[in-house]
Amino acid sequence: MRNHMFFKKALCVLLSCLLFLLGASAADRASLFLGDSAWEEDSLLPFIEAEGKQLVPVSAFGAFSGITVTLSETLGSLLLAGADGYLSYNLNFGTCLDDGGSVTDVEIYRYGGELYLAPEPICEKFGLRFETEYASDGYLAARLTDGSETLSFKELLSMYRESGEEPLPYLYNPTGRTVGGTIMHPILLIPAVANVGNLLPLLDGHPTTFAIAPQDIKKYVSVIPGIYAAGHTVAYYMDAADFDEPQAFLAEMESANEYLFALLGKTVRIYISTEAYKSIPPLDGYFAKSCRMNLVADDLRNDRMVNMTLYQSPLFGIYNFSLTSDRETRLFYDEFFRKFDEADGLCSMTVTESSSVQ
Description:
By secondary structure, the protein is of the alpha/beta class.
């Protein structure tokens, strides 16, 4: 349950208009400051103030002497450590363990490939200070300091005005551009190799996971680069028959990963089954996901079934659904994804280690 709450609360994939803003003028903007300087990664990882939340990229804390930031997506963990102790975050459950043994629930967000957290608990732990201030043009800025700063925040902001002989950064607030939402995970279960080329245009910017049997990976050699290039990803499909010999299936995934790494420099740590999550055999080093909602052509032409997938299932913690890839079902993809886009606050994302288990 906590696993699904983590991604339900997670920041949604940014809208294209925000990406345009960042790409067009990121070099001219600043929103997060460390001490007496703008955060050097601000153009890609700004301070985010949205929906009443004030969030800071985790890597910014690693810029301070004595604080180390260690992230493992494979293990689903984030560690912030310093002389005063540590904070250990479990990305799967949305919890934080401190060096005193206390465990608390936390909200963890993603944006631009980075994890974002509320700064106050971290500042309290490591003796930092977090402050915000409005610039003269009305944009909200944030600053992290360790006590070594020489300028007040207002003085610092006065140096970052739009006027002057040289162009200087100005601040922006992505409110309305970066929003919380419900993240769904479309999956294509063992699509035929011949169908992949027809599938990619129909997905129309909706990140999707292609679940393939690991022993068949070489059959997909001609289409896997295109899958990744289009913003999608690959996971391994575990048939119910593999439950009887999980170690053999593990060996097949290891072998497939060697081939995939040689091909693209990537590996896969996720395997997907259509069985109930609790029945899927756990395999060391890999993350099991369950996808029990499998939609065929008749389902996509049925408004009740589509509404159940997009509106009712998330209320019960079900975010994974699969689409068959046969020609008849593909005819309904456009209409299905149109309804998907019309759903308020709904967005798609490929399956990741920390995504919903079902």
